Amino acid sequence: MEAVTPSDGRLRSLLEASMAITSDLSLESLLQRLVSTAAELTGATYAALGVIDPSGQQLESFVTSGIDHETQRAIGDLPSGRGILGALIDEAAPLRLHDLSDDPRSVGVPPNHPAMHTFLGVPILVRGVAYGNFYLTEKAGEEDFTEDDQEIVSLLAAQAAIAIENARLYEAATQWSQQLESLNEIGNALATETDLGRLLDLVARRSRELLNARLVTVLLPVGAEELRFVAVAGEEGAGLIGQTMPRAASKSGRVIERGRSERADSVPDDPEVDHEVMRRFGVRTGLWVPLVARGRRIGLLAAHDKLLADPRFTDNDLRLAETFASRASVAVDLSQRIAQTAFRRVVEAQELERRRLARELHDETGQALTSILLGLKSLEDAVDGEDARGSVASLRELVVATLQDVRRLAVELRPKVLDDFGLVPALERLTESFAEQTEIDVRFESGLGDERLPAEVETALYRIVQESLTNVVKHAHARVVSIVLARKPDAVVLVIEDDGRGFDPADTREGGFGLEGIRERVGLLEGKLQVESREGAGTTIVAEVRLI
Ligand SMILES: Nc1ncnc2c1ncn2[C@@H]1O[C@H](COP(=O)(O)OP(=O)(O)OP(=O)(O)O)[C@@H](O)[C@H]1O
Ligand SMILES: [Mg+2]
């Protein structure tokens, strides 16, 4: 093989090309200059440079020389990297051909494409990784491309490789700093923004920008059965806000259940995906990341369809989404804790107020009525005449009844026995007087012994039984109610079961405050509540409260 000795002109062109790399040309115009130089130095009529996308499968951009705009428009789409171009992508080794169309790998050229015969392809490699290829065709004078040409183009390819790598590094660095900026912004918002909706909206918008996704949604559970869209970023998604979907039948619900991030490269083929919502949006790919705070799974962040030719998300995208999800988790957890604290204060204030009213009714109103009673007694003895005595007597009976009412009301408001002797004696009294008043058979059983529980827990369980018994009278038409208190190593379980007519628990969302109040009280103690009921089959309420 002859040593390659480029002529002066060629050397100058090569030098110019390498100077261009250090100037601040855009990657596009730099590649354009390299292509033109390659055509010039080898005498090729047509030259092109294809950049392979990071997946390594297809061409991301295609810069040409020798083909004017008109022709380019007439040819249509850029080559996708099949045929000979594909072979060069796969093999990444130089290739010289006398006639393109003779090669068995050739798939032919599209209509309106200029005829091409002689061919030189040279890969652009950086540390063994192919970043793209030079393609040169139709050397002037119908000659074949030479070894010499190949060497020259290889030198240009080395320049192109550096330029492309620099551009990718720059892009990665910019992306990185954008990510940091967004996360910083969310961090600041966490410290200052108190509106959860606005915070999650920010998380959704920023993650959509950085993931370059079509749609990003944040879902939080409502009750045990459903998930609600609380933040949505993406033009078509605005209508989703506030909508709910069943937890059990959806991919989102399942990902929350499993507590691990997941990715689907083809949503229509994923049997778990909630097809109704996904079909409405024509979603193709998805990322699902659970929101987890202090070990609790509290929601989900999902992203769909990368806005690139290839809509699939990468591992990096998944990690990025996880970072955003962890920020969102902190926000949700914080706001739930604030809401809980506020609610706890309300409940505490309510109990205090009830206690004060109960004492006032008992001590003041009760005392006053007792004095009146005594007064009436002496009056009854003092007055003459049957009629007068009769009136005083019936007045006295009225006062006795009122006094009983006042005492009952005081006990209902806040039984002294609950404070003085604890939950079990208080429930014994409550169930006894309930049985007397209603003629329902109430069975109460306690496995607690003499143990006193934290005041907050005793109050909550007492109020739960109170509300449940009221519901039994109001709605159940039951004959028997059983109330069982059981002790677990670190929890107390309360079971209230009636044999009444039952109801559909899913149907009562817009109903009264009773069950909702029970749910909130249990939630406040980070406990679990189950309401099992079917029409005609009675009702069972199970509340489990942890003792910390
Ligand atoms: N033990 C029960 N048996 C049959 N139905 C019940 C029972 N408990 C609750 N329900 C049904 O559930 C609904 C909701 O109960 P909840 O206690 O929340 O509201 P409410 O009792 O109607 O009103 P409030 O408690 O606010 O006075 C009731 O209206 C009733 O239809
Ligand atoms: Mg009720």
Q: How does this model look, in words?
A:
- 50% of the residues lie in helices and 22% in strands.
- It has helices at residues 8-22, 27-42, 69-75, 83-91, 147-192, 196-211, 251-258, 275-281, 315-382, 386-413, 416-420, 423-438, 455-476, 514-524, and strands at 44-52, 59-65, 95-97, 119-126, 129-139, 213-222, 226-233, 244-246, 262-264, 286-293, 296-306, 441-446, 480-488, 491-498, 528-533, 539-546.
- It starts with 7 loop residues before the first helix and ends with a strand.
- Strands 8-7-6-11-10-9 form a six-stranded antiparallel sheet, with helices on both faces. Strands 2-1-5-4-3 form a five-stranded antiparallel sheet, sandwiched between helices.
- The protein folds into three domains: 8-172, Beta-Lactamase, CATH 3.30.450; 179-337, GAF domain (Beta-Lactamase, 2-Layer Sandwich); 423-548, Histidine kinase-like ATPase, C-terminal domain (Heat Shock Protein 90).
- A hairpin with a 2-residue loop joins strand 13 (480-488) and strand 14 (491-498).
- It is an alpha+beta fold.
- It has 14 helices and 16 strands.
- The structure holds adenosine-5'-triphosphate and magnesium ion (MG).
- Adenosine-5'-triphosphate binds next to helix 13 and helix 14.
- Magnesium ion is lined by residues 467, 470-471, 512, 514.
Map the helices and strands:
Blueprint: H1 8-22, H2 27-42, E1 44-52, E2 59-65, H3 69-75, H4 83-91, E3 95-97, E4 119-126, E5 129-139, H5 147-192, H6 196-211, E6 213-222, E7 226-233, E8 244-246, H7 251-258, E9 262-264, H8 275-281, E10 286-293, E11 296-306, H9 315-382, H10 386-413, H11 416-420, H12 423-438, E12 441-446, H13 455-476, E13 480-488, E14 491-498, H14 514-524, E15 528-533, E16 539-546
Parallel strand pairs: 12-13
Antiparallel strand pairs: 1-2, 1-5, 3-4, 4-5, 6-7, 6-11, 7-8, 9-10, 10-11, 13-14, 14-16, 15-16
Bound molecules: adenosine-5'-triphosphate and magnesium ion (MG).
